[in-house]
Amino acid sequence: MIRTEGLVKRYGDVVALDGLDLTVPKASVLGLLGPNGAGKTTAVRILTTLLQPDEGLAEVAGLDVVAHPDKVRERIGLSGQTAAVDEHLTGYENLEMVGRLYHLGRARSRSRARELLDRFDLIEAADRPTKTYSGGMRRRLDLAAALVAEPDVVFLDEPTTGLDPRSRAQMWETIQDLVRAGSTVLLTTQYMEEADRLCDDIVVIDRGRKIAQGTAEELKSQIGGERIRVVLATWDDFAPAQAILDGVAVDDVQVEEQTRNLSAGVKGGVDDLRQVLQRLGDPNVAVVDIGLHRPTLDDVFLSLTGHSAEQVATNGGGQKHTESEHPSKKEKEAVR
Amino acid sequence: MSSVALAFADSAVVAKRNLIKIKRVPEILIWTLMSPIMFVVLFGYVFGGAISPPGVNYREFLIAGVFIQTVIFGSTYTGAGLAEDMTKGIIDRFRSLPMSRSAVLAGRTASDVFYNSASITVMTITGLIVGWRIRTGPVEAITGFLIVLLFAYAFSWIMAYVGLKVSSVEVVNNASFMFIFPLTFIANTFVDINTLPGPLKTFAEWNPVSSAAQTAREAFGNTGTGVVPDVWSLQNPILYTLIWVGIILAVFIPLSVRQYQKAASR
Lengths: 336, 266
What we know:
Chain A has about 325 residues and is of the alpha/beta class. Chain A contains 13 helices and 14 strands. A six-stranded mixed beta sheet of chain A has the order 6-7-8-3-9-10, with helices on both faces. In chain A, helix 3 packs across helix 4 (about 105-120) and helix 9 runs antiparallel to helix 10 (about 270-280). The longest helix of chain A is centred in the middle third of the chain and has 16 residues, at about 165-180. Chain B has helices at about 5-25, 25-45, 60-85, 90-95, 105-130, 140-165, 170-185, 200-205, 210-220, 230-235, 235-265. The longest helix of chain B has 29 residues, at about 60-85. In chain B, helix 6 (about 140-165) runs antiparallel to helix 9. Chain B has eleven helices and no strands. The radius of gyration of chain B is 19 Å and the shape is elongated. The interface between A and B is medium-sized, with 33 and 27 residues.
């Protein structure tokens, strides 16, 4: 449903997209993962006809976005940091307006607006101007606006950036419902957890380039599998503990004396963990904490780029290649 | 529906959205409607004693001028409204929708016709209170009001372009005053054009603001016995004004639509 080939976008000397290739099959979710300035928003803006690419091909629902922007717009919905609602209009008026502008007609626009307000738990706030809405409510309304015309392809640009944990969890549920109903979704995020939760396929981008692609599991296995980590109560038990871990480890046991941490890569998962626990009980090694750790996407990002995504995200403001033309506006949006 | 019908429908939806804003924030409308009252009273009584155009009471002479001046000032509202929209995400929403490309602009200028109608109504009432009278029939009077509205509509498109070009509400206001003041003062809006010195008089004679004011004055029967300068523009004020309206629309509609596409796709 979405395809790009060699997509390039420059802002003066700054290269926002440097030959991006993407493919999103029907009824699947692609996560575009990367720090601020990686080019995520630029890619979304090109695919939603808001921006012209300098080079390369971009197709949505089989339509070239440069040649047929009007036809593409009939098939897509956009929500996230670049889309918005009118603050003086009520939630209902916003959705009705969007319906009319999708040319659904008066009656259909009205019934769709009611349906969506109900579905997004905004029915009680339906007749209040949206400037009285909380950040989470605004985002939900914004997503509702993207779905008014039941689009084939939905673009969600950092749908949860700036939301509190509860609103974020709500938003995730909503997106999962959407996907179950058969929509094709392209989602950008800088949160590993979000990509992990929602996406069938993840493309990690950095500085406008794809640096990795795969399912969350594939990406994790790229940097090695699971590890058993043990925190000892006392360092006196170091030697027996190391010996026990060595028995199941696929590589060298890693040791950190200061934190009394030992860890070992394993293949057997929970079985290995059970075995280790049993053996630790035998000479009675005192353990503060033990667990099986899967690498997070954060670990993936760190190993792929040499820097953590969150780190760049928080320091990202001063970076040269910010992806939006209005960084101040974006920051404001995020604060809300 | 044909694409023209769709464009009209889309513009109406956007115009409705703009009018809802006036309803939600009525202060905007109230304060901007105060300024024409102020102009009528201020000019009428401050200049009223010093300026006396031949054969007509100054306050009666003044009203048509204030009409024109006020709607031109009012057109900055179009520019400011668009400049404000352009700084907000709602423009991205509009641009991602399959709506007509000109609807955001056509809707804005259309809703400002309502706004101008409101300010003309306020000025008419104020004028009637301070002694202005319509001395012609209803047909002439309605023609006068329509010409003023049409002239205002054309200026809205100029300011729409300015608003898109600068993209900051403050700049719209400051930049536009620099050209609106001379344009509305070097004309027959507030004084008899014959009192102006040479080059200014020539400018005033061909200034469309003069012909628009002259049209309104003739339509309301407020011309007095002053000699209308023997230039084509003021001898045929309706035609000359309509030509200007045509030129402004022909230039600034396509220019604004193009600027909108460009400004929004940065």
